[in-house]
């Protein structure tokens, strides 16, 4: 591992674990926020729970999205055991979205990588990762488990806080086609929970030819380290 990448990783870990290494098997959080499905569509409120494997990129996001008064959709977004998946059902029974296969694997792997600030134990030591410094404040991680390959670049400030994550080509569903699209997330308002300092505000954006489209923004309202 090149010296500059190692220095950035150590900066992130020191910021995230100010009292020293925190041992855990997983992390969990509860979120509130809003999301939308197109630039001209309204924002929809959601509440969600998310579990992260402590040392890797596996995650499961369970959300309830308010589609209309008295109507909600249940969404499950995940990357588990090398497989990515998305399902959404209105009223818990009517399917409205489903994603499986190689594009879903890559898309969810990219999400798992971008959300490493919520399980900072995985910085440096996680399996299937290769790290590279691409500037004094930019760090690229490439995940390759032999099935899926995905890469994300992190912007790191002088204190070791990850301010953003970006991928040059995340699969995006456009009608019946899948289009690789530049995608990014931003993090803010770091707080300490159980000895772990993590961001509590985030937003996610597609960078479309017609301009940026922020489609998700949320806040962490509860966070736990699962030992």
The main β sheet shows up as:
13 strands, antiparallel
The share of residues in helices is: 10-25%
- Our count of domains comes out at 1
Instruction: Describe the strand arrangement of the main beta sheet, using strand numbers.
Output: 6-5-4-3-2-1-13-12-11-10-9-8-7
Uncertain regions: pLDDT < 50 for 5+ in a row?
Answer: none
What is the CATH class name?
Mainly Beta
- Total strands: 13
Average predicted local confidence, pLDDT: 93
H/E element string?
HEEEEEEHHEEEEEEE
**N-C termini distance:** 29 Å
Total count of helical runs of at least 4 residues = 3
What is the fold-level CATH name, i.e. the topology? outer membrane lipoprotein receptor (LolB), chain A
Helix/strand-derived category reads mainly beta
Shape: globular
Strand content: over 45%
CATH architecture group name: Clam
Instruction: Evaluate the radius of gyration.
Output: 17 Å
Ordered list of secondary-structure elements with their pairings:
Elements (H helix, E strand, L loop, with lengths): L2 H14 L9 E10 L8 E10 L5 E10 L2 E10 L2 E8 L3 E6 L2 H13 L7 H4 L3 E7 L2 E7 L4 E8 L5 E13 L2 E17 L2 E13 L2 E16 L1
Antiparallel strand pairs: 1-2, 1-13, 2-3, 3-4, 4-5, 5-6, 7-8, 8-9, 9-10, 10-11, 11-12, 12-13
What does the model show?
This protein has 227 residues and is mostly beta strands. The protein has three helices and 13 strands, in the order αββββββααβββββββ. It has one domain (3-17, 25-34, 43-220): outer membrane lipoprotein receptor (LolB), chain A. The protein has helices at 3-16, 102-114, 122-125, and strands at residues 26-35, 44-53, 59-68, 71-80, 83-90, 94-99, 129-135, 138-144, 149-156, 162-174, 177-193, 196-208, 211-226. A 13-stranded antiparallel beta sheet has the order 6-5-4-3-2-1-13-12-11-10-9-8-7. Strand 2 and strand 3 form a beta hairpin. The chain is globular, with a radius of gyration of 17 Å.
